[in-house]
Write a structure and sequence with these properties.
- The structure holds two protein chains of two kinds.
- Chain A is mainly α.
- Chain A has one domain.
- Helix content of chain A is about 70%, strand content about 0%.
- In chain A, α2 packs across α3, α3 runs antiparallel to α7 and α6 runs parallel beside α10.
- The longest helix of chain A is centred in the middle third of the chain and has 28 residues.
- Among the domains of chain B are: about 160 residues, 3-Layer(aba) Sandwich (Rossmann fold); about 120 residues, Distorted Sandwich (Coagulation Factor XIII, Chain A, domain 1), CATH 2.70.50.60.
- Helix content of chain B is about 30%, strand content about 30%.
- Chain B is built from 13 helices and 17 strands.
- In chain B, the strands form four sheets. A six-stranded mixed β-sheet of chain B has the order 5-6-7-3-8-9, with helices on both faces. In chain B, strands 11-17-16-13-14 form a five-stranded mixed β-sheet.
- The longest helix of chain B has 19 residues.
- Classes of the chains: A mainly alpha, B alpha/beta.
- Chains A and B meet through α1, α4, α10 and α11 of A and α2, α3, β1, α4 and α6 of B.
Chain lengths: ~280, ~450
């Protein structure tokens, strides 16, 4: 007699997996809608905040790093002429990627602990919660990208590489899913995770080439910054959307491999610790 | 409701999926199809000193093994064929809730196997999956999705669900604005809307109050009649005996007895009563009181409580002298006359009145109801009626007794209203007889002729 499979393991019910997958997909979709609509539910601006928040942050950063503490950016033709606006757009591209990353990392540790009912009282595929958070963050990022692309289009700054955007984001999303699973599970047992991640995301903001280009760093330091999971996606997205420069395909290939490993690791950790959630929440 | 059984069955949820691996082998061997089977089911709660240690234990099982394990459930085995009803009895802390949670899948067994065949509707934590900020409509879809039911089927049943919950006007309001009754109604409607194969019920066979309690009770009974398997925990021996086909008595996490309901309730009751004198002399524990009250689940013991569409108006012990003190009755002489006024929605079938007599130690002496005695109560057009019960030449012995009165459905299962321990009366008897009641008796005497020893053997035949 086979032991009862762990419901957290999506793949164990080998029979009927298409049905299972379909029902899980339906549930994920609902969770996603809830995440996106739920955040601003009851607020006057509603979904408008999805647009307004990054734009306001952009304004502040553009002022600080464009006017007060100007960084050395390469003079890319087409962008340099735009002055502060060109700088703001460059900044925005990086910030969108960062916000996506930081939102998932910041929310992951409390995803499970904030839903004790889903852990203890109903049979619920908890592994979907981190995915839903990732999906919601991605939705916010896509809205921002839409704004960015619209402005770039108006300015006539259009590069064919922009079409590759999904391909550039995919490896990071893979890594993020793994990190989200890992942190969500860890957050159940080690409550400090949430506090710690707040610090980590702030550090990441300044340790990523967002307010400055990677090339502005001393050559000896540049490889170290590549260890930051944000560096490559930020640089790649900027190259594709703003500068139209060649993309670092080789590095992205390696990044994808590491991201896949992170995803597997995060998933394994989540599945292993899942039976203990009920005691920890 | 209930037009397309096909699609509901084609949508296995978590619960139905995890048993598919075993279905093939098991159905071939056993003749009646089983809905539930537990074999050596055990659940240990490991008490770790530190969350880090718990984490380590989870990641590298076996190393730290079980440092401080508390076994909430041990070696529980039973098989429940489809369509049967299993009642679970046991004291508080005996492991009933753990068993129910294991069956629902919210807990994982530490050892043993559990087969659950079919979709489970757990009426334990109704509304636990609701998000208060979202509307009733959104929560219905969300809750159904958690149950593994796709949006098409939910859309199909949506109107029924809302109508059953009686929330047409509020379905687009956020659930946080609902009263707890509305919340419960909606949760119950969703949980039972998709023809569950197995119902897991804790304590009461109905949900909510008033008219909805009756409606939910009827739905549970309808599901049962359509072949749903039911597992329910109850302190009400009456319910266990009335609707269960099997009963399971848990004691300290282990199966004490698994047998037909009457035997189990009797043995369990005996064990409780054995404890009664020792432990509960002064103040009976609430659970004990509920268990021995025998007739009905109690939500509150306020005798003036009024619930919904059928209620007790007045319970009186009619005394010849019209006194207000505690009636004092002469055993074997006086008549205990009880008058129960009630009102019930004329649209409901005529209710039944149940009466329970208990000793001061909460031991049930006797219980009956109009339904059990084959009496159909008459009501006027407004639904009011009066039941009178007379116990002539009351055969009780000296002591203080409590009366509880229940107003129930026609089958004496669903309780509309109750007045627990609403009246007290004293009985006194003369003579040194000991015990609880005078049994009808007859002594016969016969002069025995002296028989020779040799003839004794032959006379025996």
């Amino acid at each position: 007699m086979s032991p009862r499979p762990d419901p957290a393991r999506l793949g164990t019910a080998a029979l009927h997996w298409p049905t299972l997958l379909r029902s899980r997909w339906a549930l994920l979709r609902q969770l996603l809608v809830r995440e996106v609509l739920g955040r601003y539910r009851g607020s006057w601006l509603g979904l408008g905040w999805t647009l307004l928040t990054p734009l306001l942050m952009l304004l502040i950063y553009a002022f600080v790093f464009g006017v007060v503490l100007p960084a050395r950016w390469p003079a890319v033709p087409g962008v340099a002429e735009l002055g502060l606006l060109g700088f703001a757009l460059t900044l925005f591209a990086g910030l969108i990627v960062f916000n996506l990353f930081a939102e998932v990392l910041g929310r992951a540790p409390t995803l499970i602990t904030s839903q004790p009912n889903y852990v203890k009282k109903v049979v619920f595929p908890l592994a979907l919660l981190p995915l839903a958070a990732l999906g919601a963050a991605l939705f916010h990022a896509l809205v921002s990208f839409g704004v960015l692309l619209a402005v770039l289009g108006l300015l006539g700054l259009w590069h064919w590489q922009a079409l590759l955007l999904p391909l550039l984001l995919a490896p990071m999303l893979l890594a993020l899913a793994g990190l989200a699973w890992l942190l969500a599970a860890l957050g159940v047992f080690v409550r400090d995770t949430a506090q710690f991640m707040g610090m980590v995301t702030t550090a990441l903001l300044f340790m990523s080439p967002i307010f400055y280009p990677l090339s502005a760093l001393p050559p000896a330091m540049q490889p170290w910054l590549l260890l930051n999971p944000l560096t490559l996606p930020v640089e790649a997205v900027r190259a594709a959307l703003i500068w139209g420069t060649p993309l670092p395909w080789g590095a992205l290939g390696w990044y994808t491999l590491v991201a896949a490993a992170v995803a597997v690791l995060g998933w394994t950790f989540f599945a292993r610790t899942r039976p203990g959630f009920a005691d920890g929440v | 409701m209930g037009c397309e059984g096909h699609r509901a069955q084609g949508l296995p949820s978590l619960q139905s999926l995890h048993l598919m691996t075993v279905t093939a082998s098991a159905t071939a061997s056993s003749s009646p199809p089983l809905a539930l089977r537990a074999q050596g089911l055990s659940k240990a709660y490991t008490l770790h000193s530190h969350p880090w240690r718990r984490l380590r234990h989870l990641l590298w099982r076996g190393h730290a093994a079980t440092e401080h394990s508390f076994w909430a459930l041990r070696e529980v085995s039973f098989a429940l064929p489809r369509g049967e009803v299993l009642g679970v009895v046991g004291r508080n802390g005996a492991g009933k809730s753990t068993l129910l949670q294991l069956l629902c899948g919210t807990l994982q067994p530490s050892a043993g196997t559990l087969e659950v065949r079919g979709r489970v509707a757990a009426l334990l934590e109704l509304g636990a999956g609701f998000n208060p900020d979202f509307s009733g409509r959104e929560n219905v879809f969300m809750n159904a999705a958690i149950l593994g039911i796709g949006p098409e089927l939910v859309r199909e049943r949506f109107e029924d669900i809302v109508a059953f919950a009686g929330l047409q006007a509020f379905i687009d309001q956020p659930v946080r604005t609902y009263s707890s009754g509305m919340y419960m109604r909606l949760a119950f409607a969703v949980a039972t809307a998709f023809e569950p194969d197995i119902l897991i019920i804790d304590e009461a066979l109905s949900v909510g109050d008033g008219a909805f309690a009756r409606k939910s009770f009827d739905r549970i009974m309808a599901l049962k009649e359509r072949g749903a398997t039911i597992l329910f925990c109850s302190h009400s021996m009456f319910h266990i005996e009335a609707i269960c086909t099997q009963a399971l008595w848990l004691e300290a996490g282990r199966v004490q007895l698994l047998d037909e309901p009457q035997r189990v309730t009797r043995a369990y009751q005996a064990a409780l009563d054995g404890n009664n004198g020792a432990v509960v002399s002064a103040a009976p524990a609430p659970a004990m009181a509920a268990a021995t009250a025998a007739a009905m689940p109690e939500t509150a013991s306020d005798s003036t409580m009024v619930t919904g569409q059928a209620r007790l108006l007045q319970v009186r012990c009619t005394q010849p002298d019209g006194g207000v003190q505690v009636p004092l009755l002469q055993s074997g002489l006086d008549t205990l006359a009880l008058q129960v006024d009630f009102v019930a929605d004329p649209l409901l079938p005529a209710p039944a009145v149940g009466v329970v007599i208990e000793t001061a130690q909460h031991q049930t002496v006797f219980s009956t109801s109009t339904a059990l005695d084959g009496v159909v109560l008459q009501r006027n057009a407004a639904g009011s009626g009066q039941a009178q019960l007379q116990l002539p030449a009351l055969p009780l012995m000296t002591g203080s007794y409590w009366l509880s009165v229940f107003l129930t459905c026609e089958r004496t299962l669903h309780v509309y209203d109750h007045a627990t321990h609403c009246l007290r009366f004293e009985v006194c008897h003369s003579g040194p007889h000991q015990g609880l009641v005078f049994l009808p008796r007859r002594w016969n005497q016969q002069t025995v002729p002296v028989v020779p020893v040799s003839a004794a053997n032959g006379a025996r035949a």
